């Protein structure tokens, strides 16, 4: 059974950086495209970034220039690099296999001084 496990969240000051990881256990060949979502307090879950098996990457406008998504060639890990973090980036971040419609458990990111 394929599972997604996020890690790398934590508490960071405004302007700081974090790199989230999403590790895939099981067969990763059919997982792509994949995505990062986040759920801010009191808000609905929202898309942050996507990556395809061919390496096409997109981030939403609200984080463009600060966040980037990448993956290892083997496809077993995808990353979300987050720079210049702002308090409004505080959220639980989830990775998702769009192809299989499965989610990880999420990792908390808190941006606060």
Topology:
Elements: E1 3-7, E2 10-12, E3 18-25, E4 34-39, E5 45-51, E6 57-59, E7 67-71, E8 77-82, E9 91-97, E10 102-103, E11 107-111
Q: How would you describe the shape?
A: globular
Derived from helix and strand composition plus strand pairing, the structural class reads mainly beta
Largest beta-sheet details:
7 strands, mixed
Distance between the termini: 40 Å
Number of strands: 11
Strand content is over 45%
| Average pLDDT metric | 94
Order of helices and strands: EEEEEEEEEEE
- Low-pLDDT residue spans: none
**Whole-angstrom Rg:** 13 Å
The percentage helix is under 10%
Count up the helices.
0
Descriptors:
113 residues; four-stranded antiparallel sheet; 50% strand; 11 strands; seven-stranded mixed sheet; single chain; mainly beta
Structural notes for this entry:
The chain has 113 residues and is mostly beta strands. 0% of the residues lie in helices and 50% in strands. The protein contains no helices and eleven strands. The protein has strands spanning 3-7, 10-12, 18-25, 34-39, 45-51, 57-59, 67-71, 77-82, 91-97, 102-103, 107-111. The strands form two sheets. Strands 2, 4, 5, 6, 9, 10 and 11 form a seven-stranded mixed β-sheet that branches. The protein has a four-stranded antiparallel β-sheet with strand order 1-3-8-7, with no helix packed on it. A hairpin with a 4-residue loop joins β9 (91-97) and β10. The chain is globular. The relative contact order is 0.32.
């Amino acid at each position: 059974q394929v599972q997604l496990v996020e890690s790398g969240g934590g508490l960071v000051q405004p302007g700081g950086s974090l790199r989230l990881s999403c590790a895939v256990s099981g067969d990763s060949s059919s997982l792509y495209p994949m995505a990062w979502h986040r759920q801010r307090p009191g808000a609905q879950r929202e898309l942050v970034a996507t990556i395809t098996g061919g390496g096409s990457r997109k981030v939403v406008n609200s984080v463009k220039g600060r966040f980037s998504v990448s993956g290892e060639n083997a496809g077993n890990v995808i990353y979300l690099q987050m720079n210049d973090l702002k308090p409004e980036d505080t959220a639980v971040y989830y990775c998702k296999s769009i192809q299989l419609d499965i989610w990880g458990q999420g990792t908390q990111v808190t941006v606060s001084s």
